[in-house]
Amino acid sequence: MNKDTLLNVYNNIQAYIHKTPVLTSRLINEIVGAELYFKCENFQKMGAFKMRGATNAIMQLNEAEKQKGVVTHSSGNFAQALSLAAKSLGVTANIVMPKNAPQVKKNAVLGYNGVITECDSTVIAREREAAKISKHTGATFVHPSNDINVILGNSTATIELLEDYNNLDIIVSPVGGGGLIAGTALAAHYFKSDCEVVGAEPIEADDAYRSLISGKIETNETVNTIADGLRTQLGDINFPIIQQHVKQIVRVEETEIIDAMRLIYERLKLVVETSSATTLAAIIKEKHQFSNKKIGVILSGGNVDLSALPF
Amino acid sequence: MNKDTLLNVYNNIQAYIHKTPVLTSRLINEIVGAELYFKCENFQKMGAFKMRGATNAIMQLNEAEKQKGVVTHSSGNFAQALSLAAKSLGVTANIVMPKNAPQVKKNAVLGYNGVITECDSTVIAREREAAKISKHTGATFVHPSNDINVILGNSTATIELLEDYNNLDIIVSPVGGGGLIAGTALAAHYFKSDCEVVGAEPIEADDAYRSLISGKIETNETVNTIADGLRTQLGDINFPIIQQHVKQIVRVEETEIIDAMRLIYERLKLVVETSSATTLAAIIKEKHQFSNKKIGVILSGGNVDLSALPF
């Protein structure tokens, strides 16, 4: 892998994704004493960065594989992303979703022509169902975060960010399943090697923080965090990348996430998911460390239940 | 007045305002069957288009007048806009606010160095207090919407919009005090004379709709609308401009405003004020009329109480 690997991915998927804007807020900069550049993946197609990874994963398939389709298990953004990317590329996307997934999420997948198979809501049931579909149809399984092509697709958000702002000292990314921060770290490494990558993670689901300390993939016993996109854990493909290229993970409290989310709504006038707000929460929490730096901030997505905003 | 009048205003204020982005949504376009181009004045400095008019009003003063400052009465966006514009230009802004205005609004004005004078919450008390300040200090009174320099400043949002999209058939603007739609109409007239301007107004405060029919400025007996920025009425300076250049005003129900607002949050991922949502509500309501058109939509601002969202 080298810089050209990432550039090729970016060139390939460019026609299928939005180049998202980067926004700033004078007031937020004053609060943190640094220059923040918010990469608005909430404006990405289907509302989250996941569109990038899903698109690349499908584009890497050969024609025979594309004929047979793809399959994943997800009830969140990746289900929509894979469905829309598959639709754009003329491929069938099979989505395994728990029976009790909200109808609004099922409708979103159906709206993008995704083919839903329902299953019990345990991880084992979901994986078994996806494996069954893969076996029967020959569809390629695409993991939402632990897949190198997904990670490379995700890296393109940071390629764009560094294209617009090539003087960043730090980029802060949320950490959930690890697919976004691994992509962020690869892009920073190959496109601006002196730009540090810092993760932001809820204390209530701090498996990545603990994994970096212990040197092996840790799990969460409970995931009582409002940042529902970050309840997942690292995988064997993204963890080594994170170990090598991520300097630090900052853990944040639930109230810190909510306060930062409110600031993003009030000052940036952006609708973002709770997961996205962990980044600004981390910067505010450790503001002495970030003081006077130029900081890229990945706002990962904007698919949020407006009826359940925490303020 | 001619095109150069507006261009000069734009050139003058450009350094003090943001050129705001224009966003689109494939799904919203599908819903309405037209191409919508949302002009994001919620990203304007202090969060609303009012920054444009306030800045121009102050810049038109001579040095002696600037020394003596400006005064207005407002508890909303114009109070903040005049305070920030005055601060940027080294001028004192006196803001008359009702005693019972929320502390958060007072703080916003104070944050921009505005000098607050409190008064009773009646219109008469506010006008009297502003006149008194003007008499004592020599400060120039600037009306939030019924002032030609404010109107010309507001026109620059549409100048920018037509600069980016010179093929628009229609521009839809909210109607409150009339300062925004009058500016919109002037810019459309001088920069693309075949582009129609349509107003969007709550049925619950439909003074402008009735004024266009009767040919004189009508008032509202009640203003039971969630669109708090649109509870004001037209004035003698903006009304003739609206009569001459605004083709139509579409009136919308409260539920239509709320539904459109939700769509803007969910699909555009933007935080906007209720007033801004009247535009999309009007387009959805009259979608047969707007079908297949290229429509500019002025999202007037984003200063909303997040604790009181209607969903």
Task: Tell me about this structure.
The structure is a homodimer of 311-residue chains. With 311 residues, chain A is of the alpha/beta class. Chain A has two domains: 3-48 and 147-308, Rossmann fold (3-Layer(aba) Sandwich); 51-141, Rossmann fold (3-Layer(aba) Sandwich). Chain A is built from 14 helices and ten strands. Chain A has helices at residues 3-13, 26-32, 50-59, 63-68, 77-88, 103-111, 123-137, 148-164, 179-191, 207-214, 238-245, 254-268, 274-285, 287-290; strands at 22-23, 35-40, 70-73, 93-98, 115-119, 140-141, 170-174, 196-202, 246-252, 294-299. In chain A, strands 1-2-10-7-8-9 form a six-stranded mixed sheet, with helices on both faces. In chain A, strands 5-4-3-6 form a four-stranded parallel sheet, with helices on both faces. In chain A, helix 3 packs across helix 5 (77-88) and helix 8 packs across helix 9. The longest helix of chain A is centred in the middle third of the chain and has 17 residues, at 148-164. The first copy, chain A, is globular, with a radius of gyration of 18 Å. The A-B interface holds A 21, 23, 40, 42-43, 47, 262, 265-266, 269-272, 302, 306-307, 309, 311 and B 21, 23, 40, 42-43, 47, 262, 265-266, 269-272, 302, 306-307, 309, 311.
